[in-house]
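quick one before i forget lol
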Amino acid sequence: MTASTIERDQDAGATSTRYHYTRVVEIAGRTVRARLERGVYLNHSGAVAEVLTDQTDWSTLVADDLNNWWHDTPPPSMDVNASAVLGPLAEQLLHRAAEILAAPPPTVTLSPHLYRAVSALLATSSGYNAECRIDPNDITWATNNGGTLHIFEHPDGSVTFTKAHRDECPFVASKGGQDCDDECYFDLPSRV
């Protein structure tokens, strides 16, 4: 998963001894700069993507080895279109940076109270010392049949777990505060 980028700035230029291309974007709320320079000599060239730190310093996220691109680019001259030559390389660097900066998928954390409620659900349905393993096929079956799982914590400390109501039901909309409108019908699933 990669984060989306928002364009902020770019600059390019060429002289008889070097050409450069810089592109600044925002990725996942961070300012990232791809900076590429092609000089007459290898040691006067470079390709990096850097992130702006909280201390307003640039810190390198990724770099590309000069041997991956230097020999395939034209030597410096005033006629080189630096954006056209170095732009695709900058795009590759920014893509790699976006992969690094991409936020991990959100995780769901149960509150201690909700965790205890799941324990109570297991105990009341299968016994106080119950153990239950739910196979992936059963998870898929349960997800595909009935309503969406809704979990409501109530002010009195009780918790409702329900798949019996459609998303638009007054019971769901009010988090259990109103009665069902009796329009929540689901086809009876078959176990295959």
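fyi The two ends are 34 Å apart (CA to CA).
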